[in-house]
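Translate structure to sequence.
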């Protein structure tokens, strides 16, 4: 089979798009006010979901951001590494000079010295002789490439032993309406027109979009629609925009010799959360995790992306036993005291998976235990503190065996890696 070349017409148009409208739109001065946090490539997630909380934090981390765009993931990771005195570097590759200049300006504003930028195409990785990386981010890139499978395989060759990746691809059901408008704009704003002219047409269409258009009823994403010219162009005018069901995404990983160590968030792909019917749950119990994920995506209908941490097949690292009294739990991002405040009087934690809100039941003791999780105290320390509140060790083990797996599946509580 003849594969499309890197210089096919649509790829040339894609390159022109990101020079004209780097996505997402970012202002370097905003780095003085906030740090954008997300998945993949959050440092604590990498430590846990890729390295199984077994890799020393003192060991240098060499990371590659393959297709960094204007730099959200790269800036987050480099900043988190700097703040935690983590040795290593973040190497950023993108073929758009304009996008790289924005990412570089953001890094300069933050005075990051652990990040560097290379203007190059991902199809030229071999010639760059970059060496091996412990972690590779490829977020929002594969679905725009001429040959996603080939590029993913080339990235696998850059993985160091026991290394892993963070990936994001678009998903079809949560983007209902997007591809319909893309089809219409193929006719109204042909790819042969200059980017500015195509954008003008898209804006005119959006101002007159019929009330019946599916995009008007899709509340599953807002970043593109509120992201200025770059966001609108990337959503509706991108010359190559694939989407993957979870089944197709897992097939893509398998073809590249990869396994998912985590789909983000894990609970999102568990249909038992929103199918309380006992008979349905019994049937779900007979399905594989992949089959459950397929059911969850099809039933919820709101997954606009799939985010995954992946490792080579057969290299998944099992995290330490969370019941071990020497294990150290830590909050992924939200402090325990703040997460506890979100719990309701019935001891449920309201949690949103995109536009789907699900009440997550937790033991009553969760509200008092969460503020104690600081990345320093061990599980044994938590048990000892709760013993002063009348909770026996047996009782503690029972509630902890419910609390940790639940909050882990929500990507809220993880385990600390060794120093």
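Result:
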């Amino acid at each position: 089979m003849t594969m499309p070349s890197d210089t096919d017409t649509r790829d040339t148009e894609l390159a022109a798009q990101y020079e004209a409208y780097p996505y997402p739109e970012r202002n370097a001065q905003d780095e003085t006010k906030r740090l954008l946090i997300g998945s993949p490539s959050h440092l604590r997630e990498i430590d846990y979901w890729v390295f199984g909380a077994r890799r020393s934090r003192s060991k240098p981390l060499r990371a590659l951001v393959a297709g960094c765009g204007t730099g959200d993931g790269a800036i987050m990771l480099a900043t988190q590494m700097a703040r935690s005195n983590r040795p290593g570097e973040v190497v950023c590759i993108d073929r758009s000079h304009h996008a790289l200049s924005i990412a570089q300006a953001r890094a300069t504003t933050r005075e990051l010295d652990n990040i560097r930028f290379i203007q190059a195409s991902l199809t030229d990785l071999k010639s760059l002789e970059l060496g091996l990386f412990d972690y590779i981010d490829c977020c929002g890139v594969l679905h725009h490439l001429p040959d996603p499978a080939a590029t993913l395989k080339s990235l696998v060759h850059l993985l160091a032993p026991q290394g892993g990746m963070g990936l994001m691809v678009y998903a079809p059901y949560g983007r209902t309406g997007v591809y319909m408008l893309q089809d219409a704009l193929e006719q109204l704003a042909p790819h042969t027109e200059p980017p500015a002219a195509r954008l003008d047409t898209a804006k005119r269409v959006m101002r007159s979009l019929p009330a019946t258009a599916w995009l008007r009823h899709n509340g599953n994403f807002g970043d593109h629609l509120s992201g200025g010219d770059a966001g609108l162009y990337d959503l509706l005018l991108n010359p190559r925009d694939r989407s993957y069901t979870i089944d197709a995404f897992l097939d893509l990983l398998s073809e590249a010799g990869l396994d998912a160590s985590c789909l983000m968030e894990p609970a999102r792909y568990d249909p038992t959360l929103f199918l309380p019917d006992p008979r349905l749950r019994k049937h779900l119990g007979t399905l594989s995790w992949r089959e459950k994920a397929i059911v969850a995506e099809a039933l919820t209908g709101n997954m606009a992306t799939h985010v995954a941490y992946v490792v080579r097949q057969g290299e998944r690292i099992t995290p330490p036993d969370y019941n071990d009294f020497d294990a150290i739990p830590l909050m992924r991002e939200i402090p325990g005291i703040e997460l506890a405040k979100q719990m309701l009087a019935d001891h449920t934690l309201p949690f949103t998976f995109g536009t789907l809100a699900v009440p997550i039941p937790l033991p009553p003791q969760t509200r008092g235990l969460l503020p104690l999780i600081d990345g320093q105290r061990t599980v044994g320390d938590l048990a000892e503190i709760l013993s002063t509140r009348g909770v026996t060790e047996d009782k503690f083990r029972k509630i902890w065996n419910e609390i940790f797996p639940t909050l882990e599946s929500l990507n809220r509580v993880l385990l600390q890696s060794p120093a």
